[in-house]
Design brief:
The structure holds two protein chains of two kinds.
Chain A lengths: L5 E5 L8 H14 L5 H21 L6 E6 L3 E9 L20 E5 L5 E8 L2 E8 L13 H8 L2 E7 L4 E9 L4
Antiparallel strand pairs in A: 1-2, 2-3, 3-8, 4-5, 5-6, 6-7, 7-8
Helix pairs in contact in A: 1-2, 2-3
Chain B lengths: L2 E6 L2 E6 L3 E2 L1 H16 L4 E5 L5 E2 L1 H14 L5 E5 L3 H9 L7 E3 L2 H5 L1
Parallel strand pairs in B: 2-4, 3-5, 4-6, 6-7
Antiparallel strand pairs in B: 1-2
Helix pairs in contact in B: 1-2
Classes of the chains: A alpha+beta, B alpha/beta.
Family (chain B): Belongs to the anti-sigma-factor antagonist family.
Protein name (chain B): Anti-sigma factor antagonist
GO molecular function (chain B): anti-sigma factor antagonist activity
């Protein structure tokens, strides 16, 4: 694996109907670079499709990009675009997060709640979806962010206010997956 | 969204005739099944035997259908999930919420 790291740009199709084929092409390339762990490849497909689906639903920036990078110990799937920062609801704090803020409960809509770890004024890591499993009525109807959080080792969002650059990055460990 | 529907006793067996159950089809699928529920069908079995991949949008549609059945004391059973789809239900812990059976025969009995 001394040829690493390698980067695989993702071409997002116009509709979700092409995403499975796109993910299959990425998995084939990863196999050609020696990644054969079926569990890891399954998680890569999940993250790719959910990130790209979110892309199709929300991103209008023509310069938006998705990139898969394979390195010796980690695989990252990154989505970047220019625009407004991610919108969420939080009673305790918002962007820019005050210094000293550690963990917060945030919401992206009805029952779509997450625990996050603040990493900087405009950056956080998704820790855990907060699902009330005591009632079907309280179940979320949005699972994209939850799937990426569960499928990856680390899922981070960051925003740069000077350039308006948004970045979602999921990291998966190559070993031990 | 192509669906095949078959009535077996009191149960409506809905077979999804698409390979990808995704964002493009989730809303149409939900609308069609909600119409069936409005028409009086409350015992539903959904077969995924033709489905290769299911995304978060479709999961959301299934949860919405389940919520609609709840006040009617209906039942929603999922069947013929491939390994990837089964894994997705386990990852999101929705395998604890939905009734999942191996075959339509056990699902409709």
């Amino acid at each position: 694996m001394n040829h690493l790291p390698i980067s695989i740009p993702i071409e997002i199709p116009e509709t979700a109907d092409g995403l499975y084929q796109v993910s299959s092409s990425v998995l084939e390339k990863l196999r050609s670079y020696g990644v054969h762990n079926a569990g890891l490849l399954r998680k890569v497909r999940l993250v790719l499709i959910e990130m790209a689906t979110n892309f199709l639903k929300h991103v209008t920036d023509a310069r938006a990009r998705m990139l898969v990078t394979l390195d010796v110990e980690q695989l990252t799937i990154c989505k970047t675009y220019t625009g407004s920062p991610l919108r969420f609801f939080c009673e305790e704090a918002g962007f820019p997060f005050p210094a000293g803020t550690t963990e917060l409960h945030i919401s992206f809509g009805k029952n779509n709640n997450h625990l996050i770890a603040v990493q900087g004024p405009y950056s956080f890591r998704f820790l855990n979806p907060l699902v009330d499993e005591t009632s079907i009525e309280l179940l979320p109807e949005s699972y994209g962010l939850s799937i990426i959080t569960h499928a990856s080792e680390r899922f981070v969002y960051a925003y740069e206010p000077q350039t308006h650059r948004n970045e979602f990055m999921a990291v998966l460990n190559i070993t031990g997956s | 969204m192509n669906l095949k529907k078959e009535k077996i006793n009191d149960v409506l067996l809905i077979t999804i005739e698409e390979r990808e159950a995704n964002l493009s089809k989730a809303e149409s699928f939900k609308d069609k099944v909600l119409q069936d529920i409005q028409s009086g069908e409350t015992q539903l079995v959904i077969s995924f035997k033709n489905v290769t991949y299911l995304d978060s949008s479709f999961l959301g549609a299934l949860v919405a259908i389940l919520k609609n059945l709840l006040p009617l004391k209906g039942q929603l059973t999922l069947t013929e999930l491939n390994e990837d789809i089964q894994n997705l239900f386990e990852l999101t812990r929705l395998d604890k919420v939905f009734v999942i059976k191996d075959s339509p025969e056990t699902a409709t009995s």
